[in-house]
Amino acid sequence: MNSLEPQGADNGACSELQTMIADSVERLFSRAITPSVLADFDTHGRIDDLWQRVVDSGLPHALVPEHAGGSGASLLDVGAVLRAIGYWQAPLPLGETLLATALLARAGLDIPDGPISLIQAGRLGDVRLTTDARAVQGCAEQVPWSRACRWAVIADAGNIALVDLQHDSLTRSAARNFANEQRDTLCFEHTPVVATAELKLPGVSEPVWLLGALLRACMSVGALESALDMAVGYANERVQFGKPIGRQQALQQLLAQMAGAIGLAQMTTRIALGSTSDYLEGRLAQPHRILFDIAAAKVCASEAASLGCSVAHQVHGSIGFTHEHSLHQVTRRLWSWREEFGSDAQWAHLLGSAAIESGAQGFWNGLVERDLWRSHQEVA
Amino acid sequence: MQALDIRPCTLDTRSETLRAEVRAFLSETLQDLPAAERARNWNGVDESFSLKLGARGWLGMTWPRRYGGHERSALERYVVLEELLAAGAPVNAHWIAERQSGPLLIRFSPDNLAPRICPGIARGETYIAIGMSEPDVGSDLAAVRTRADKVVGGWRVNGQKIWTTGAHRAQHMVTLLRTSPRDETHRHAGLSQFLVDLSAPGITIRPILNMLGEHDYNEVFLEDVFVPDRDVIGQLGDGWKQVGAELALERSGPERYLSSTQLYLEMLDVADPLDARHAVSLGRVAARYAALRQMSLGIAGMLARGENPAIAATLVKDQGAVLEQSMPDLAHELFGGLRTPGSPLDQTLRYITQTAPSFSLRGGTREILRGIIARGLGLR
């Protein structure tokens, strides 16, 4: 429309580091995660070989600062990794480990070797750190990858602790999500922590819950892109009545709707990754913005998961309902991830309460500022 | 999927400074505008308000000075638009001329029509209607039958246009017509656009009242209307190309997701933050607003960089209409049977319930848009 240059437009271009990380994770997962690897995981639950390949690639410590032996990448830089976990349905505690190491590094704690799980006190069970933050007490439900991980990071109020999940005082009842990913209930009986420190994150009271929601939103977007690719591919191949079923308008409308929902999820997760990355690097003046961005991302990603699974299965017909076809590897994960670290309804509740409080006078500015809690200190 | 990718856009400080100016202007100018009027959003007409915007330099903002423009950035214009729409300002008198017709003339008739017509648009004085649809021609524009026959010094135009918004207020109508006979093998050839003077002899304008009994649409009859050669837009036979370029400008703006905003704001003011049903439902909408604002802004940034995100813009329009149309049903779900008659919520709900059906018709029907998105996904 005009030839004038936009002022201050962010062209969203990828940095060299981002491209490198994206290429390397894509290369690794596209080769290592085959249908038989996923089938084997479903049957036996083993992840050791795959995890070793990820360790060899250096990915788990990507967010650890260089002086502490990591790659010093930002959260935004590893966005492609989080997405790829979903796109390739990697049955690995990679996202959890990335976030755990970032939190440990921020609190000034040493990073242990091996995969690390995440626990937020005050959510899903009654687990707490003791008042001196030197021991863990109570039960934590749905602990991700709790058998595969030797360690877990527990966040409670302003503290963070590293706990050894193989400690004798700990009892475990095994559980899995729809996709057979480990989600055990762990009960701690005054289990001593390995290390503990204060975690200063202004405006954020439940860092593991919040970052976990962002992680699941990013993974869901990847899984949704995979489901859409599969559905479009199938619709173009499958011929009925002498033409590919993808030529039917009814089916095109469904897939366009799915693409729309994914579009909302992609944009909100991208924005949330950017602001959370800035926040963790100390470059975000408004801490509540990450709360707004992550809540919006989790709502949009989980809503897209509900619609996307339904459309992808409808398009695939009976073949997509078989155990042999790999569509269920995607949809079973989406049905799990849409509720983990808070469902769309739970995060919508937080956003909606704040929107109602801001009222007709304050909502639009809150939307522009991406902050509905401008007068509050700490929210979630 | 590449075609659907939208890159986030960050507004610069200049745009944010401008936002403060616009808000100050609006809170003063519109302080007495009742909710029921704000609910009309970009359907609201107030010619004196259009003149005020022109005087502030907020019309034709991005256009070169020789066309009466102000050579500001596309993102500054975006900020002005979203502030106007969020406030429910009555922008309809100049809307089509400023959004579509001015850019069309600048692009295709830069030496003739644009210098003559655009300065009036930028002052908020000149209004333009768009004559595309005909009684049997809706989505399939290539089938237009209005025709022009060459005469000395110009053309003689005969035909009929329908659904012509604002023709009763506009001085001109951009008219799509046939300048050579229809050729079934080249359906899009032989179409041209003329700038028809609506006060010319042979023009008859008849109102079509919408279901609320309001007069926005018209039928326009053209009987032996003389159009001088100098009022042919661009090159003869380029009509189809011009229309395509115009529709791209029409599909991505903030008006594509903000039309029902007043109803959302009224709901926020009567909702109970402790009622989980209210908080969850209104929070889901807040998340969608967050997503669509970033998507719409992202497209504005891409357009400003000279990219052509046509399919992504189509997706934003489709999803925007879904959001806008969900609002009356949500208001019904939460407050149906409970509203105070005559309250701002009641008045807003009445208006938006009855205009919402048009949101997925204007500017391309939902079915056509989803067909475009499906092709963008690679469905053949």
Description:
The complex is a heterodimer of chains A (380) and B (380). Chain A is of the alpha+beta class. In chain A, 49% of the residues lie in helices and 13% in strands. Chain A folds into two domains: 183 residues, Butyryl-CoA Dehydrogenase, subunit A, domain 2, CATH 2.40.110; 163 residues, Butyryl-CoA Dehydrogenase, subunit A, domain 3. Chain A has ten helices and ten strands. In chain A, strands 1-4-5-8 form a four-stranded mixed sheet, covered by helices on one side. Chain A has a four-stranded antiparallel sheet with strand order 2-3-7-6, with no helix packed on it. Chain A has a two-stranded antiparallel sheet with strand order 9-10. Chain A is globular, with a radius of gyration of 21 Å. With 380 residues, chain B is of the alpha+beta class. Chain B is built from twelve helices and eight strands. In chain B, strand 2 and strand 3 form a beta hairpin. Chain B has a four-stranded mixed sheet, covered by helices on one side. A four-stranded antiparallel sheet of chain B has the order 2-3-7-6, with no helix packed on it.
Task: Looking at this protein, list some descriptive labels.
heterodimer; A: 380 residues; alpha+beta; Butyryl-CoA Dehydrogenase, subunit A, domain 2; Butyryl-CoA Dehydrogenase, subunit A, domain 3; 2 domains; four-stranded mixed sheet; four-stranded antiparallel sheet; disordered N terminus; B: 380 residues; Butyryl-Coa Dehydrogenase, subunit A, domain 1; 3 domains; 12 helices; 8 strands; 14% strand; globular
Write the layout of secondary structure elements.
The complex is a heterodimer of chains A (380) and B (380).
Chain A: H1 16-32, H2 35-44, H3 48-57, H4 79-87, H5 94-106, E1 116-120, E2 128-129, E3 135-144, E4 151-156, E5 159-164, E6 170-173, E7 183-192, E8 195-198, H6 207-237, E9 239-240, E10 243-244, H7 249-280, H8 288-316, H9 327-337, H10 344-369
Helix pairs in contact in A: 1-3, 1-4, 4-6, 5-6, 6-7, 6-8, 6-9, 7-8, 8-9, 8-10
Chain B: H1 13-29, H2 35-38, H3 47-56, H4 74-86, H5 92-108, H6 113-123, E1 128-131, E2 147-151, E3 154-162, E4 172-178, E5 191-197, E6 203-209, E7 215-228, E8 232-233, H7 239-250, H8 261-270, H9 276-304, H10 310-335, H11 344-355, H12 366-377
